[in-house]
Amino acid sequence: MTNANGNHASSDRLDRVEQLLEAIALRQDRGQRQMENLQASQQQSQQQMEELQASQRRTQQQLDQLQQVVQDGFVETGNLIAELTVSTGNTLDEIRQRQVESDQRFLSATEEYRQRQAESDQRFYTLLEEVRYLIRKLPGPNPGEE
After folding, report:
1. Quick check: pTM over 0.85?
2. Distance CA 7, CA 126 (A)
3. Euclidean distance between CA atoms 25 and 129, whole angstroms
């Protein structure tokens, strides 16, 4: 019986070894699939990282362009302000000059008016004196002597 028991035990061990080998093969297959999944996930992560880096570069380029546009806008605005300042200054100078000329013309016209008025007054008083003189020279009673 030992031989039959020995064969049976040997067969049991052989079955057990085969079961263990199958279990190891299954685990190895699962491990292999997990490794393949992990590699695929790693490749996908790498691809997403590359896409993210490309997007980041595009965003940085857009920010650089925006910064340049803003800087150009500031320069252009500064130039426009400078031009406006010069133009306004020139316009104000021109207005001041016209005002000075207008004031001078007004003062000159006022002075001429006063001079003509004084001359006219002088002629009036001279004529008045002549009329009085002529009235006194008229024959007959003097109007003031009645």
Report:
1. no
2. 172
3. 151
Query: Is residue 143 within 8 Å of residue 135, measured between CB atoms?
Result: yes
Query: pLDDT tens across 63-106, in order?
Result: 999 999 999 999 999 999 999 999 999 999 999 999 999 999 99
Alpha-carbon distance 48 to 42, whole Å? Answer: 10
Q: CA 100 to CA 137: how far, in whole Å?
A: 54
Q: Cα dist. 140→57, 127, 134, 136 in Å? A: 123, 22, 12, 9
Q: Which residues fall within 8 angstroms of residue 35, CB to CB, at 6 or more apart?
A: none
Cα–Cα distance for residue pair 134/41, rounded to 1 Å:
134
Give CA–CA dist 124/51, Å, rounded.
105
The encoded tokens of residue 6 equal 């020995």
- Is 145 in a helix, a strand, or coil? coil
